[in-house]
Structure formats: C-alpha cells, structure tokens
Amino acid sequence: MIYSRVALTAAAIAAAATAPILQAEQRNQDSSTRTPIKHVVVLFQENRPFDHYFGTYPNALNLPGEPQFQPRPRTPQVNGLTYELLHNNPNKVQPFRLGPGDVVECSQTHVYKNEQQAADGALTDKLLMDKFVENDGATNKQGVPTDDGSPFCDPSMVMGYFDGNTVTALWNYAQRFAMSDNSFATNWGSSAVGAINLISGNTHGAQMNGVPVDVIGTDIVGGSVIGNPRPELDDCSPATTNRITMAGRTIGDLLNEKGITWGWFNGGFRAADPTKTCTASHLGSNSQPQADYIPHHEPFQYYPSTANRQHVPPSSPESIGLTDQANHQYDLDLDFWPAAESGHLPAVSFIKAPAYEEGHNRYSDSLVEQRYLVETINRLQRLPEWKEMAILIVWDDSDGLYDHQPPPLVNASNTSQDALTGPNSCGQSAAGAYQGRCGYGPRLPFLVVSPFAKSNFVDHTLTDQTSVIRFIEDNWGLGRIGDQSFDDRAGSIENMFDFSRHGSARHLFLDPATGQPIEQEDNR
C-alpha cells in the first residue's frame, strides 16, 4: 500500500507558492512511500558495541547516588552478558561495570586487522572473541599533555561496560520503543569504514587524483577503505594525511534520481563566522579543545556527486533538502533546525553531532552523548512531522570494545590486513569479489524511536549498517546501489515497526541530564 498525504500544510503551501515549480514537485514526491513513514532521521553516533551499552539489559545495579532504572514488566531479555560471560570470560580480564563517574575513557585500538585478531578465529572453526585485551586494548596516552603525569591508557578498559544507571536514556528508549540485539558493523574497522558503509554499503573504490589505488599504508587495501583517510573533496581535510575520493554511488544519488529531499547535517560543518568553519571547537571530555567537525566522519564528502568542498551554505532555508549549491551537505545548527522548525524537514536526514557530543571515547563520553541525544529527540518529537517519523539511532564502529557475539562471516577477504581465520585470511573470497571488506564486523546497538515502533521490543533479525539504507530504498522505491554494495543482502529493520499504529503519536520526553522520563503522552 502507498501512503500519501491528501493535503499540504499551510506552511508547505506557502513555500511551494514562492519556490520554483520543480522544487514544489520534489517536496510533493517525498510523501509517496511504501509505509506511513514520511521522514527518516538517522542519528549517527560513535564507537560503541552492543555489550558496552546493553550487555546487562534490562538489569541495572542501581547503586546509591546514580540514576535508577527499573524495567517494565515482561521486558524481553537480550543476547547479552550472561553470568558465565561475566564471571568465567575467556578474555584475559573479566568484564566489569562502569558507572556514571567512569565515562571518560581512552579510545581503544579499533582498526581493521586488530579487531579481526581480537575475534580470534585463526586456529579454530569459530570465532572465540577472547583476545580483546591483547589486540584492542589501548596502551598509549591520549588527548593529554605529555608532561602532566597522567598514566597511560589501561588496556583492560576494553572489557568495561555500562548499564541503565549511566546510559539511562538509551535503556528508556529501548523500553518505550524498539531495539535490535543482532545488528552488526558491515565490515571490521574504524570510523570512515562505518560512515562510508552507512551511505553506500561499499568501501571499495578509493582513488587519488582520479586514479584507483590499491594500497595506502593501513588506510587502503585491495582498493577498499579500512582506515581513516580524509576526503580530498573537503577543504577542512588536513593536508598532512592521506586524502582520497571514492568512486561509486551512494544513497544520496538514489534519492536525487527519485527526486526525494535529503541531507547530511553535521555539527560544525559551517560556522557563523565563515573564517572559523574548520576550526570551531568545544572543550572535549579530556579537557582539551576538540574541533566540532571531523572530515572523515562526513562520508558524502568522499564522493564527487555529493561533496560540498568549500562548505558553502544552502541558497535559502526553503532549499534545504533540494539540490543547490550546498549539494545536500549542511550544518546542524545553522541549517537543520531552521529548516525543520519552519516546515522544511527533508524526507531523509542524516545527523552527526559536533565531535564533543558524538560519544567517541577520549574527546567525548557517554553522558555528554546522552544529553545530546535526548535534547535532539525531545526536539524532534515536538515537530508536526513526528507523527510520521522514524528516528534511527546507530553507531559507526565498536571502538574495539568487547562484545561477546561473533558476527557471521558474510563477506570474505584475503589481503595482508586480514587475520580473522588465519594470516592474510578472512574466509575465502570469491572470484571477482572486492577485497578489504571482511564482514560482518562487531555487533553494534540499533534503536528505533518512532510512533510506529513496537513498544518494549527486542528484534533478533540479522541486520547491519546498510539495513538503514535498505529501509530508505524500500520506503521510497529507490532500487539498489549495485556494484557489490551490501544493501542488496542487508536484513530488514521492519520487524521493529507496527504500522497499524498509524495516527497514534506516542511521545517520550526525557531529562537530558539523567535520562529519566519527565513528560509522557499517550505512551501505550
């Protein structure tokens, strides 16, 4: 069934009357969807595996002085940290609980090869998930002056996890809406790998100066991104790093071809003072200045068809989501919220927080991330479009932190940087398959916040990062990206929805500081 609005709002009519006919037609096209969802908002966070946030869900320790969490009756269990895994874990260090006072952590070693070694399947026919301390645990000093006397990072911290007394908001969203305990990174690797997969499902196609490249240090192998090269088509990319472009197509290209409004909205992408666009910063959790904008966290900047090299603004607030000089790449504060709160919310919005709020260990933390997520979701729920919206909360990679669940091997690779099933081995790749894409990678959290989300529901369907773009493709009838993109094999997230709830606008407003409910409306 196709769900379409029968009438435009007054604000939309006014905008259409002053916009070019083509723009009005494009916004009308947004509402022709396979489900009642007319607006998808993807909140793209950083560096957390499932067990790190939900390993003991729904059971929290509830120590005095910490936000309390009590699960609703009949809350389903998750595939998490069992008694055996907590007390007889095969790793060098047993998993241990972190509280609200422990949120400032070192970032762990989370690179393509090390993560495969941590999973440890080289001498067996299965992944043992037992070498995290040795391979992923951080030992270097991070984000602090070299002479301040701070200790080096403790590699055992790779085994730490939080519960509902710290990531209280996420546990409350899981209680009221839906989450998955069987969703994985598309490939092993770090931030750029996850970001590129989120929009294209294909990390293959790295180029320098328009020429395909096979290997660049530990950033590129087999022509695929496995590290964090910076986008060449971004004036904020540092000149001293590997800089590349990507060949191939993205979900942005499919949306453009179908005439659907969309945008990537990044904290710090522009600054009120244009001379500070690349240098705008906030104090990070490590008490050091942290640039708001990180180029390799903005995947559309790798692609010539979608890059906004000079970070130019849109031609007008009304044009946000349409194709103009900004090329669908925008600032979060200067562009997204003015558009959303004036009746111009795009059909598809990818939202990236300024770095200090994105949850990445070292320069951000879980409580700062919680505040940002709650403030953002509270604000989105107050939009008229909330009644037809799905908010997808997803993460880019695991930071190398421990998760006990072995991912299925759905894509093999045999390069010098592979080590999952033996030296230079991640299974046995098929003839013609792109290399350097060993996957699936680590298990990651995935939450759906929507009036249509099932309530207090845990989905066990196998999904990965490209399940996000598969939902967008299916909802708007876009087709597939092709060229070995993982979107063609991605599992569906639709089991987390109940579309019979059409017209029921449930809300859950939380306190940004505590993650506890402060206002609820029709939370059936």
Describe the structure concisely.
By secondary structure, the chain is of the alpha/beta class. The chain contains twelve helices and 22 strands. It is 20% helix and 14% strand.
Structure description:
With 524 residues, the protein is α/β, with parallel strands linked by helices. The chain has one domain (43-146, 153-201, 264-301, 344-521): Alkaline Phosphatase, subunit A (3-Layer(aba) Sandwich). It is built from twelve helices and 22 strands. The protein has helices at 10-18, 21-29, 50-54, 83-87, 112-119, 132-135, 168-176, 191-200, 251-258, 332-340, 366-381, 466-476; strands at residues 39-45, 96-97, 160-161, 178-180, 183-184, 206-208, 211-212, 220-221, 224-225, 230-231, 243-246, 262-266, 281-283, 289-291, 329-331, 348-352, 389-395, 446-449, 457-459, 463-464, 507-510, 517-521. It has an eight-stranded mixed β-sheet with strand order 15-12-16-1-17-18-4-19, sandwiched between helices. Strands 7-6-11-10 form a four-stranded mixed β-sheet, with no helix packed on it. Strands 2-3 form a two-stranded parallel ribbon. Strand 6 (206-208) and strand 7 form a beta hairpin. Helix 9 packs parallel to helix 12 (466-476). The longest helix has 16 residues, at 366-381. The two termini are 25 Å apart. Residues 1-19 have low confidence and may be disordered.
